[in-house]
């Protein structure tokens, strides 16, 4: 299903509350991410991203959580994220905060440019 927000979002995995929140432009209230707003700009970053060289992979979920992998690291990164305009802040379980900049349909973080993983 394609929407005005992002054709890469697979709505078959979303529950009724999430679908309603997307349709109404509001927030789905689930767990610790309930206070985070899910604006149209937030919807544009949801999905799987990876660097062209395959070193970094990042999955941003609709519920405000993320999972990331970096080649050569044993422990995958997991945590929550917030979107503020053209910026995303990842907060992993260890307490590390990583700023991510959204520019020209790509994410830039820690010297890596990530593109949608088609």
TrEMBL record:
The organism's place on the tree of life at top rank: Bacteria
Pfam families linked to this entry: Atu4866
Protein's UniProt name: Ligand-binding protein with streptavidin-like fold
Organism of provenance: Actinoplanes couchii
